[in-house]
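Protein: Response regulatory domain-containing protein
Species: Lamprobacter modestohalophilus
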Amino acid sequence: MPDHLTPNYDPSTPLRLLIVEDSPADQRLIEEMLIGSSITTEAVASLAEAEARLSRGNLELVLLDLGLPDSQGLDGLIRLLAEAPGIPIVVMTGLRDDELGFEALRVGAEDFLQKDWIADAALIKRSLRFALERHRLRLRVQIAEREQEAMALERIGGVAKVRISASAFGLKPLRDSDPTLFTEIRDTYGQILRAAAERQVYQVQHPISDQLRKLADQLGFVRASPRDLIDIHSAALEIETHSVGPAHERLIINEGRITILELMGYLASYYRRYYVGSMGIQARGA
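Structure follows.
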């Protein structure tokens, strides 16, 4: 996928758009509006076809009609977000149906267009381009924030002149020193990963941040290191992605990247509270 947020980004780089629209006339109109632009198109007429096409990858954008033969309203949007969580979706609503459009934004769409706007070529191009820009920028900001939290683990070592690591505590990896506890924490973390995926797909509320804070406190209490967190994450991810479809697997992996960084940030906060400035840190089980 072209990187739209770097100084070397060329706006003429073709973007691949999937049009999900059951009206052949509207399909043709949208395609005609985009002729001569840097957006290449392909079209399908049902949600089932869209899901099948998205599973093959190689797309940057989706333009989705919310009124399809096999899907009405927000159901189609929710299903496509689950199928391809990394691809921005712009939805098309009925005439003057702003309320449905705003609800689609709350669910996860990047933008919405009313059907009577699709004859405006400049508006369509701008909406699609801006949707992709917003999507990628938001992901970068979110990941950057989590990475800053994770880097706090290293900064703590500089402030206290104590590196927060297994070697500093004189510890073996948690999976070796206490396999039972490792399994318990792995399973708890796996439940959090599942909840994060459900939140993304169904827009349900789960107290994920609270659960991660509690887990970080438990890990901090037993002097867990960043290496332990990676071990826990990898083991849980292997279990949670076993025997699931490719779309669900991608969703869990994507949510897992954010979740592990958030957990690292909370663990860093724990060490700030309890260990920065401490002159004597006792090894686990000593």
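Remarks: Residues 162-274 form one domain.
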